[in-house]
Design a protein that fits this description.
It is built from ten helices and 64 strands. The chain is α+β, with helices and mostly antiparallel strands and about 950 residues long. It has six domains: about 150 residues, Methylamine Dehydrogenase, Chain H, CATH 2.130.10; about 80 residues, Thrombin, subunit H; about 160 residues, no CATH class; about 110 residues, Immunoglobulins (Immunoglobulin-like); about 130 residues; about 80 residues, Orthogonal Bundle (Arc Repressor Mutant, subunit A). The strands form 16 sheets. It has a four-stranded antiparallel beta sheet. The chain has a four-stranded antiparallel beta sheet with strand order 2-3-4-5, with no helix packed on it. Helix 3 packs across helix 8. It comes from Algoriphagus aquaeductus. GO terms for molecular function: DNA binding.
Length: about 950
């Protein structure tokens, strides 16, 4: 190969000093094709060419690609570019670094404090004289020391120091074997790297003109050396060729890379013929090319991962081959067309029945037997004769050809009578047929009358034939003595102990009839003529089991296909059965759910009818994994007011060691996790639990992301674990963190709240106290008001009473005054009349005196006149009148005397009469004066009272 062609640089895989011998191959010739998963450039979004492959400590696959370093965790591909794009090789060291080599550069990638991969070039530190190397072909690690192998020399990197080891000649590819580094020097041969330089190994010049592609540990003290164009050689100081049989190997095949696998076999990756797996003697075990599932024939590198999966770095893409899996495919890639329905092994030949016909598998070659095109239902070996149950009838298979035995369509299966060896009953679409063995062959006799049900599943129990029907139940059938018709048939279903009428089947397991239904396993009790649960099986599965097929092997195991799972019931040392299903999870969704079937060819070869061909199961390869896989965080994001990526999955970041503390505003998190179990593919399931938030672990789910939003303050631990397709559970990955409380829920805030609460309590107490006092005061005021109101009411009532009394008194007084006034008036009138009368008498007497001349009589008359004058003066009467007048007129006379002492008694009388509203004539009569005298008297009174001319005397005296 030309050194300039990109593609011949590989990862390094270390081997132990002692290599186990290759195990003997299984004697069975049956072998299917391994499961292959291919990743194209569009999947990993990089270049098509891939070189070295290695697996890191977390289980991720690292691939050197022509456009950078690829990383695959089973779910997501990542690409990391370098200073120049073409990565040649890589190795993962124990220090957590990925050491890489490329064109004119080498260095390492490692995770920073946040787990993000960063590239650091080491070649940049070289002096100018060493910097001019062209390619870094290989990178190896031995006991913590890293070796970068280039055309110009080998660079030793130890304790962060780079030391060049040169040679006088140009170097070619280097190899690591048993912690030794070998380098091929063109034209000189194979050399060993020592401390002081390179030394030609014994007979190493044999390879001076043969370009070596790899060197492997072989047997004790021996190496296996592969060359690109000259084959394989065994080296122990002497060199011997390891010949590959010409039956499969051609001289034009070029070996790009070889690898010793964990089971001792040798994998050869070629330039132009795909992958070969051979034993230590060179015999072919497996050949994969485009016809068998590879998409590219050029294999640059081979790597076996922790689970035994074989990774192929190809010129166009990457493939993973489940070479160590107990399962393989027999399908159209091997020439088998259709879904698998029946199988039979006869010697080294395997007959496979599909919906497209009967096929013969021999020497890894599959061919169709002519005349069997169409639906195959059963393949049975009856007295060394191969009998085929077919949609078109019943056939005898001999010498690779098919001859018809019976033409009735829908031949399901044949069951031999247990007591009459030459008689056979066949189930068909429309009932039962009778076959008989005679003259060394099986012959059709007749169709049996009296039973017309489809009879795909049936078993004998003595003379009784049990026939299961898919949706009616199970029939117990008895035939007459001459085998011409069915004389008795009875249908059993939910009326006789089954949980329902559908999906009832019957199987013979170690000479015992076992019935299955939509709800478990059942047996038949002849005495009660009913069916009863078989707890020895039901306890394994639980209620609700729907068995589609059962098949025992010679070791006491029972293989089964159940509606939700498939696996085997394995017999232990104590003869107890245990359930094993985890391994079969890989093919859980691939079996043929039309007429489910599982066939035990022998104890090492079990065929499961698949949707595409058959799934081959080899129990000897079903080895439990010693170490469960790992689950780790791919990314952790803190969200809230700001987004911050905390971790990107690489290295032991600080945040995974110590709990981080986040402010309350950053109380949302997103976790992205993964478990790189490549055989499980997308079937890995996850379970997670957030302590201090979740009550229990979540259900298993295929989702590998979990978000939590608006978490409260507190301490948290997010824990996640993974479960593979085979039921293996990983250890937990844990991320611990704390969320601070918001400022209003901080300790200081709570102290403030406490103080504020005390203040509020105090203020509240004071407020309550004031309110109480105020309320009490208001109550007192209201009480006082009520009392005052009552008092006011009482006072009002009293006042009204007093007023009423006063009114009554006033009315009484007024009545008295009125009465007094009336009396006064009456008295005054009487006095006026009396005085007038007396005046008239007086005047008459005076006139009579004048007229009479009689002195004695005149004297008498004069005395009488004087008496009248004294009476007119009326002193006593005035006194009485004055008292009554003061009582009625508010002490008028007394007050008038006090205020105007200059008034004479005549003027006071005059004033009192004016107040009584007497007219001038009445006053003149009372005073015994003339009207003129009254006028004069009014004048004098006005003057003494000091009244002006405008003031009315009467009004003044009334107001006084």
């Amino acid at each position: 190969m030309n050194r300039g062609i990109i593609g011949w640089f590989f990862f390094v895989l270390g081997f132990s000093l002692v290599v186990p011998k290759v195990e003997a191959q299984n004697s069975s010739s049956l072998r299917g094709l391994p499961f292959i998963v291919h990743y194209e450039a569009s999947d990993y979004k990089a270049g098509i060419q891939n070189f070295d492959i290695v697996q890191d400590e977390m289980g991720r696959i690292l691939v050197a690609n022509n456009l950078g370093l690829l990383e695959f965790d089973g779910k997501v591909w990542n690409r990391y570019g370098l200073s120049n794009t073409k990565v040649r090789t890589a190795v993962w060291s124990k220090s957590g670094r990925v050491y890489v080599g490329s064109q004119a550069d080498f260095g390492y990638l490692s995770g920073d404090s946040r787990g993000e991969m960063k590239y650091i070039s080491l070649a940049d530190s070289l002096s100018v004289g060493w910097r001019g190397f062209d390619e870094t072909w290989k990178v190896f690690e031995i006991d913590g020391v890293v070796f970068f192998c280039t055309f110009k020399g080998v660079f030793k990197y130890e304790n962060e120091k780079l030391e060049p080891i040169g040679f006088d000649h140009r170097l070619d590819i280097s190899f690591k074997v048993n912690n030794l580094i070998l380098t091929q020097v063109p034209g000189l041969g194979l050399h060993l790297l020592e401390k002081d330089g390179f030394k030609l190994i014994r007979n190493g010049d044999f390879f001076a003109d043969k370009r070596v592609s790899n060197v492997l540990p072989f047997e004790q003290g021996k190496w296996l050396i592969s060359t690109f164009g000259h084959g394989l050689f065994v080296y122990d100081g002497e060199i011997k060729p390891l010949s590959l049989p010409s039956g499969f190997w051609k001289n034009e095949y070029l070996i790009n890379h070889c690898q010793r696998l964990k089971n001792g076999t040798i994998a050869l990756g070629t330039q132009n013929a795909g992958l070969f797996v051979v034993d230590s003697s060179g015999n072919l075990i497996l050949h994969l090319d485009k016809t068998s599932g590879l998409v590219d024939l050029t294999i640059n590198y081979i790597y076996e991962d922790q689970d035994g999966g074989l990774w192929l770095a190809m010129n166009n893409g990457i493939s993973r081959v489940d070479l160590n899996s107990p399962f393989s495919w027999i399908d159209d890639k091997m020439g088998l067309a259709g879904s698998g329905y029946a199988a039979l092994k006869v010697g080294d030949q395997v007959y496979l029945g599909t919906n497209n016909g009967l096929f013969l598998l021999k020497d890894q070659s599959v061919r169709l037997i002519p005349g069997t095109e169409g639906q195959v239902y059963s393949i049975q070996l009856i007295r060394d004769k191969i009998i085929l149950g077919h949609h078109n009838g019943t056939f005898l298979i001999e010498n690779g050809k098919a001859s018809m035995l019976a033409s009735e369509q829908g031949a399901w299966i044949l069951r031999g009578h247990p007591q009459i060896p030459d008689l056979f009953i066949q189930g068909t679409y429309t009932g039962l047929n009778l076959f008989q063995w005679k003259d060394g062959s099986l012959a059709f006799v007749r169709k049996l009358n009296g039973f017309g049900e489809s009879s795909r599943v049936m078993e004998f129990d003595g003379n009784t034939l049990w026939v299961a029907h898919g949706y009616k139940g199970v029939f117990r059938v008895r035939l007459n003595d001459d085998w011409t018709e069915v004389i008795e048939q009875k249908l059993y279903n939910s009326q006789q102990g089954f949980p329902n009428d559908v999906l009832i089947n019957v199987f013979k397991i170690y000479n015992r009839l076992v019935f299955t239904a939509n709800g478990g396993f059942y047996g038949y009790d002849m005495q009660s003529d009913r069916f009863f649960p078989l707890n020895e099986y039901n306890d394994l599965f639980g209620y609700g089991t729907v068995i589609a097929d059962l098949e025992p092997d010679v070791l006491g195991n029972i293989y089964f296909i159940e509606q939700a799972q498939l696996g085997l019931m394995k017999k232990g040392a104590n003869q107890q059965l245990s359930l094993h299903t985890s391994t079969f999870g890989k093919v859980q969704r691939l079996w043929n759910d039309d007429l489910a079937n599982i066939t035990v060819l022998d104890h090492q070869n079990i065929l499961i009818g698949g949707k595409k061909g058959f799934i081959h199961y080899q129990p000897s390869l079903d080895i439990p994994h010693n170490q469960p896989g790992k689950v780790f965080f791919r990314e952790i994001i803190n969200r809230g007011a700001n987004w911050d990526t905390l971790y990107r999955g690489h290295g032991q970041a600080d945040l995974l060691r110590e709990p981080l503390v986040f402010p309350f505003a950053q109380n949302s998190f997103s976790f992205d996790f993964v478990s790189p179990h490549f055989e499980s593919g997308n079937e890995v399931q996850y379970q997670f639990f957030l302590e201090n938030y979740d009550q229990e672990w979540s259900d298993w789910t295929g989702e590998s992301k979990k978000e939590f939003t608006n978490l409260r303050e507190g301490d948290y631990q997010f824990r996640v674990k993974a479960k593979t397709l085979f039921g293996e559970v990983t250890e937990e990955a844990v991320f611990a963190f704390s969320i601070k409380p918001p400022f209003y829920r901080s300790h200081l805030a709570y102290l403030f709240y406490f103080c504020a609460l005390l203040g509020v309590f105090y203020a509240g107490f004071k407020w309550v106290d004031r309110r109480y006092k105020k309320k009490t005061k208001l109550l007192e005021i209201e009480k006082k008001k009520a009392i005052q109101q009552k008092d006011d009411e009482i006072e009002s009532i009293t006042q009204r009473s007093e007023e009423e009394i006063m009114r009554l008194k006033n009315e009484q007084l007024q009545s008295e005054i009125d009465f007094k006034n009336q009396e006064l008036t009456s008295s005054a009138m009487h006095l006026i009349q009396k005085n007038k009368l007396l005046q008239d008498i007086k005047n008459a007497l005076k006139n009579l005196t004048t007229e009479e001349k009689n002195k004695p009589l005149n004297s008498q008359l004069n005395r009488l006149v004087k008496n009248i004058d004294r009476d007119l003066e009326g002193g006593d009467e005035w006194n009485r009148f004055s008292e009554n007048f003061d009582q009625v007129h508010g002490n008028f006379i007394t007050k008038l005397k006090e205020k105007y002492p200059q008034l004479t008694s005549q003027e006071i009388k005059f004033s009192a009469y004016i107040r009584m509203n007497l007219n001038t004539k009445e006053i003149a009569n009372l005073l015994g004066i003339s009207v003129r005298g009254v006028e004069i008297g009014r004048y004098r009174v006005r003057k003494k009272l000091g009244l002006s001319r405008q003031e009315n005397l009467s009004d003044f005296l009334l107001r006084f």
